[in-house]
Amino acid sequence: MQRKNDALADKVLLSNAIFNGLEDEASPGFIALRGDRIAAVGRPEEAQAWIGVETVVYDLGDAFVMPGVHDNHVFFTGYISMHRGVDLTHTASIEEAIKLMLQEASNLPSGKDVNAYGWSEENWGSLPEQSLLDELFPERAVIAINLNKSYCWMNRLAQDKYQFSPDQCSAEARALLLQAMMQDHSLVKQEFMEFSRMLAARGVTSIKDIGFDRHSELLPIVKELQDEDELLLRFHFALEPVVEPLDISTGTQYKALYNGDHIRFQGYKLMLDGVVADHTGDMLEPYADMPGVTTLRPVDYNKIEESVLEADSLGIKCCLTAEGDAAIRQAVSMIIKCRDRQGNNHIRHSISDMEYPHPDDLIRMGEHEIFAEVYAQILLLNPTYEEAYMSVVAGKGNEYRFYNYKSMLEANVPITIGTDLPLFITSVPDSLYSASHRLFPDGSPAGGWYPDRGMPPSEVLKAWTINGARHCYMEEVTGTLEAGKYADIAVFDRNLLNASAGDIRDAQVILTIMGGKVTYNHSWNEG
Length: 527
Description:
Structural class: alpha/beta
CATH topology of the largest domain: TIM Barrel
GO molecular function: hydrolase activity, acting on carbon-nitrogen (but not peptide) bonds
Keywords: Hydrolase
CATH superfamily of the largest domain: Metal-dependent hydrolases
Number of strands: 20
Strand content: 15-25%
Helix content: 25-40%
CATH architecture of the largest domain: Alpha-Beta Barrel
Pfam families: Amidohydro_3
Distance between the termini: 23 Å
Organism: Paenibacillus terrae
Shape: globular
Domain Amidohydrolase: 57-520
Number of helices: 18
Largest sheet: 8 strands, mixed
């Protein structure tokens, strides 16, 4: 017996492989959507009762249906800095790049910056010289960041204007430049829409964006898109103090102002140590390749702890970025101190990066429900196992401690996944290749890199979905496929749980739905 029209579904998804996020396997079934919510989830034979003449039915066959993806660590501003201006990705020489940048300058108002991105020293044969830009562009700043974001080809005018040097071009170092790039409201709005569409094509329905200082340029744009019903993903955001010191008053204002299901403030990001690969990560034991050195960049932990405790006292959570085991230990201790002061009123603090944790601190994290934000695609930074740095900096006997997801899971650490985008572009298939199959881009090593230390595929998917929802205080309304929750759904063209290592990276999203609205359809052919 068919339901009354007002009880029928707007959309019904049928599939032989629905991963609801509550179980570890996928099974045949249907999902009925009405408005922005899931109306029902059930067995295939129950679907017909929800289908009327106006119901859009997606008969997906063996396609894999899962909750929408939440990327728990992205930098929109970093992304636009790698997509704004002249694309030098395919240039074969410095001369070709100069020609393109001169052409760009001729189309810009007098004095306006020339931005470029994507060049490679390997393609060009040498590192470009500053003097060339000084000579050709004497009256405008020129900034061209390379493909791996490790070097900015700049003239002197750009260095003086934005206060960073060519070989020190992290996102934090480029903060003044990124702030300037965010001033063009209409252009940034267009770029944010392109960014959102790109993520929707990868199954993403929610992000946590890291914004420097007050993030005041982007927030009005996101609110505008929400008011226009054009927001394609749930926008969570955290503030990272870079140009200015941590401003707790802004945090308290944002906590009151941005607390909805589409735009929500998620506290502060605070940097502790640097990067283990370049010896600025803070280690408990000296680096294997640098005897006597535990870090090249000392950390003022007392100052950071003061900020964490102040934020926690006001109910504002913090994400502490720590790579080395000494920094991770300090981060865990700071959060435990917050727990001791607040009793059972747990703020969902997290530690991001987590490259080289000590097993004892993973146990402490699990006991105190401290969230981990890991970059599950991380092995793809290294072209091959032979070129990876882990055994070099920590010693062959300790390299297994890097990215030790099994120990995190055994310690009951709640794991979420981010990308540090644009470090990586969100890819669930790539994360399974790296974190589950434990392979480098070339397929090495045979059998995987410490495969017993990886994450089972179902845990990877939960880290992308329900765990991210929990971390953002959204688990009651998103993160799993259950009746009553928002219809946030990603559909892949094959079963991600049993795809082989040789096949998984070819998996593609064919449909994304956020709040009942189709945000990406590979065919754009409903029926």
